[in-house]
Structures are given as C-alpha cells and as structure tokens.
C-alpha cells in the first residue's frame, strides 16, 4: 500500500507497522498488504539499519581512538571517554570474574542498542517517504529494536555466551549438576530441579529480548498514533513532550539490556 493510497488513520497506522520484507524463496519484496506467514521471510529494513548503526558505532569509536590525545580532549573524545568510563565502572561493579570479553561486549551492547533506539526520534514519515518516493520501497520501518526478531537475536547471542561461560567455569558435569541438583539437593528431585532450572535459564534470553522489544514497539506506536490521528498542525503538542520523555526511555532500555547481560554472565561465571 503506497502512502498516496492511504485514506484512513487505520490504514496509515497499519502501513507504518509493516516491515520491508523479502521472500527468500523468490527473492522478491513482499506486498505489505499480504504478508505470508512463512519462515522464509526476512525483515531486511531491520537488518539493514542494525548493520549500518553497528558500523557507525565501530567507525566512530575507531576514529576517536586513533585521534585521541593526552591533552585537552575534543568533544567527541570526551563523549567517548565518558561512555567508556561509565560502562567500565558498571562492569567492575557487577562482574567479578576475569574476562577480556565482558567489558567490550557491554560497551557494544550499550552503544548499539542506544543507536537503534535513537532512530525512534526521527520524524515518523521521513525515511519511509524517502524510501517510497526515491527507492520505490513498499514499506520501511527504521527502528530495529522495535522488531522482535532483532531483540531476540541479540538475546540469543547473550544466551549462547551464558552457556559458554557456565560450561567453561563449571565444566559439563558441574553445569549438569547445577541444573539437576538445585534447589533440592536430592536425586529424587532431579526432574523437578531440571524443570525449575530449565525455565529459569530459558527465561533470561526471552525476558531480555521481549523487554526491549515491548518498550520500543510501544514508543514507536505512540508516535505513529499521534501522526495518524491528529492533524499535522497540532501534532507537536504531543510529539515534543513524548520525544523528550522518550530520550529517557531509549537510554534506560540500552542500560538495562547491558546491565542484565553483565549480571547473567557474572552468574554464569561463578564456579560454585
């Protein structure tokens, strides 16, 4: 459905909630008005913006690191140093093991998620309008963290690290004992322990991914509702206050995702 064919607020809202998708079986773009329920469909807009923002983060931090000086820092260097110091202090407070991966991972998660969330502050019609009228794209969503596929994929990566550190620190036998002999340390309770510990283990990536998705999807939806239900000349009355409040939300969600990742990996790294 093109923007010119949208005639009702319901169609406008539905149009903005559709991803730019490609069917891997035919390698053709999917019509937003008829999205097939199939595994072989990729949200290429979410993947594109995630990769671009990740490269932006790497390029910016690398440039600042190469041009860093020991004297009075510039604005970019000061900003990067504040972010790195903030993340490093949180890692030191919450992770008590020894690993060269945790601090860079925490920094990557915080900045990457923050940049993905920050896309929600762009005017809701700006990039979709450019995508439609310049590139002929039938739909476009620009907030990767409002796509459950992206957030659960990131949470799955954290879950793999949880398993890796659990087995590395405890061994396969120790990890198996942790799943089967806690909280009730008796062989007769092994099935119950396995269910309880299994649910606890699996709930970590699910809650991690769904928490970020739910908050960012709700924030994006509010911007869409304001744009779809109010006349253009009155939208700023609600858009400006919500955008100011949303700055706190996008920062807080990036911080929570980072903190929970550190806490989960710290728990997995405990030897007992």
UniProtKB/TrEMBL annotation:
What PROSITE patterns does the record tag this protein with? Answer: ATPASE_A (PS00449)
Q: Give TM regions.
A: 39-61, 101-119, 148-167, 212-234, 240-265
GO cellular component: a single term: plasma membrane
Report the membrane topology from the UniProt record.
Multi-pass membrane protein
Q: What is its main location?
A: membrane
| InterPro entries noted in UniProt | ATP_syn_F0_a_bact/chloroplast (IPR045082), ATP_synth_F0_asu (IPR000568), ATP_synth_F0_asu_AS (IPR023011), F0_ATP_A_sf (IPR035908)
**Which keywords does this chain's UniProt record carry?**
ATP synthesis, Cell membrane, CF(0), Hydrogen ion transport, Ion transport, Membrane, Transmembrane, Transmembrane helix, Transport
Q: Which domain of life is it from?
A: Bacteria
Q: Name one GO biological process term.
A: proton motive force-driven plasma membrane ATP synthesis
What Gene3D superfamilies does its record include?
ATP synthase, F0 complex, subunit A (1.20.120.220)
Subcellular location per the Swiss-Prot or TrEMBL entry:
Cell membrane; Membrane
Q: Name one GO molecular function term.
A: proton-transporting ATP synthase activity, rotational mechanism
Q: Which CDD domains match?
A: ATP-synt_Fo_a_6
Relate the protein's function as given in its record. Answer: Key component of the proton channel; it plays a direct role in the translocation of protons across the membrane.
Family the UniProt entry places it in: Belongs to the ATPase A chain family.
For this entry, the protein name equals ATP synthase subunit a
Please tell me the species this chain comes from.
Izhakiella australiensis
Source lineage: Bacteria, Pseudomonadati, Pseudomonadota, Gammaproteobacteria, Enterobacterales
